[in-house]
Amino acid sequence: MTEETTSVRSIFFDSPADAATALTEAVRSGDAADAVRGQLGRMPAGAKDAVLAEVGQVAAGVLEMDVTDIFRSAWEKHTKLCEEALASLSDRAGAERVVPLAAHTITFEQQPGVEIHLADLPVTTVTLLVRLDLDVRGLLAVIEQGRLIAVRAGSADVTGALEIGGQPLLKRQRTIELTQAVRLGEGIYLARR
């Protein structure tokens, strides 16, 4: 993965266009489409297709989230990282603490919905589910002055699942190298003075 940020989409698809096409196709056919079409009742077929296309676009947008945000959220609560960050506040400026972490698991789940209206009346809400299970191993985190500033080593086996309207769309597995996928910029504050 060489793109500047690693998106959730890149776990499932090679490009944004691939994601939009595949998701739109997935929500227009199969069990997921049947479930959504049933929720839309007697709406004309063309309108149902337009609704399903919009759901596919919304799903593709959700997938553009940067995986760094997922790791950030988990690591801000990680006990060992926070303890080391707090201790690093008393270190001399520029001193780094390299913190090896045992294998750990991060679970991410988003369930946005697309609310469908007909003549200003709500008809139904179509829910999307994005779930990632990340098994992190071999992580070497670098802490300086209360901030996580770098990841020197580590990888994550990612299992991702997408559902629409309670119906499975696809499931993918991928391994990502954290040194390439996680962008920390100025760092993540885990402790402050």
Keyword list:
single chain; 193 residues; alpha+beta; seven-stranded antiparallel beta sheet; 7 helices
Main sheet specs: 7 strands, antiparallel
**Shape estimate:** elongated
The figure for the number of domains is 1
Number of beta strands: 7
Mean pLDDT: 85
- Return the structural class: alpha+beta
The total of helices stands at 7
Q: Please provide the ordered H/E string of secondary-structure elements.
A: HHHHHHEEEEEEHE
Give Rg in angstroms: 20 Å
Q: Per DSSP, what share of the residues sits in E-state strands of 2 or more residues?
A: 35-45%
Kindly describe this structure:
The structure is a single chain. The protein is an alpha+beta fold. The chain has one domain. 35% of the residues lie in helices and 38% in strands. The chain has seven helices and seven strands. The chain has helices at residues 9-12, 16-28, 30-39, 45-62, 67-75, 79-88, 178-181; strands at 97-101, 104-110, 113-118, 121-144, 147-164, 167-177, 188-189. Strands 1, 2, 3, 4, 5, 6 and 7 form a seven-stranded antiparallel β-sheet that branches. α2 packs antiparallel against α4 (45-62). The chain is elongated, with a radius of gyration of 20 Å. The mean pLDDT is 85.
